[in-house]
Amino acid sequence: MLVAADVGQGPVVVLLHAFPLTRAMWRPQVESLRDLYRVITPDLPGFGDSALGASSIEGFADAVAGLLDDKEVNEPVSLCGLSMGGYVAMAFARKYSHRLASLILADTKAGPDDAAGKAGRDKLIARVKTGDVAGVVEAMLPKLLGPEADPELADMVRALGSSQRPEGVAAALLALRDRPDALPGLAGVRVPTLVIVGQEDAITPPDEARKIAAAVPGAKLAMIEKAGHLANVEQVGAFNDVLLAFLAGVA
Ligand code: MLT
């Protein structure tokens, strides 16, 4: 079973974190949502306090469904995933559409890795297998945050990422490398959907968000100014405003 924080009362909102982080990245959103919603933030398999498990994005989605079963959450939930969390949310939407009330896809993309992307994952897997998780985080850091990000945020991401277990990071890299093309499945999404992207996202840029928004019937797109890939921590106020406004409109 996944380890998750579970706070507040009301309609259920589940927040899925990015690679190679943990549920801790959602602290600013949990604080703002918990007065109105029951907010569940799992550590995905192999991250934070959760045991190593699946090494596929679909397997991660199964683990999220299993967590909801364990918690006896039977009503449809609003599911928000950022980047890797977004890949998992799209897989969840394909397989467990009946469990969704709404979908929020933040700083993520639908397409699979191309050959160069897969080769890059293989290099990172080799590095992680030597135990050098910190080196992987350091290599990613320039792209995780926008150019104007507070240096304290870089320190937070560095500390959180580099404390992850090599086995968990390697399993997630495999899952990221081999994830399927999620674009065809997006046409079948039948719940209110919000796509959020940091204007300066260098990993999943605004064009990727536009592709998702164009593929999901009726999806809304929100651009967060002065934010890079981790838009939720870089521009907390703007991110929370669009998230809260969207959730308020979900029946
Ligand atoms: C993430 O932020 O979860 C990762 O950058 C996603 C990826 O590398 O594809």
Short description, anyone?
The protein has 251 residues and is an alpha/beta fold. It has a single domain (4-112, 180-250), classed as 3-Layer(aba) Sandwich (Rossmann fold).
Topology:
Blueprint: E1 4-7, E2 12-16, H1 27-33, E3 38-42, H2 57-70, E4 77-82, H3 84-95, E5 100-106, H4 115-129, H5 133-144, H6 151-162, H7 166-177, H8 183-186, E6 193-198, H9 206-215, E7 220-224, H10 231-234, H11 236-248
Parallel strand pairs: 2-3, 2-4, 4-5, 5-6, 6-7
Antiparallel strand pairs: 1-3
Helix pairs in contact: 1-11, 2-3, 4-7, 5-6
This protein binds D-malate (MLT).
With strands numbered from the N-terminus, the spatial order across the biggest sheet is 1-3-2-4-5-6-7
Question: How many whole angstroms does the radius of gyration measure?
Answer: 16 Å
Q: Average pLDDT across residues?
A: 97
- Beta-strand share of residues: 15-25%
Name of the level-1 CATH class:
Alpha Beta
User: Count of helices?
Assistant: 11
In N-to-C order, the SSE pattern is: EEHEHEHEHHHHHEHEHH
Instruction: Tell me the count of domains.
Output: 1
Structural category is alpha/beta
Full CATH superfamily name: Alpha/Beta hydrolase fold, catalytic domain
Multimeric state of these chains?
A: single chain
Overall shape: it is globular
Kindly report how far apart the N and C termini lie: 29 Å
User: What's the main sheet like?
Assistant: 7 strands, mixed
| Low-pLDDT segments, ≥5 res | none
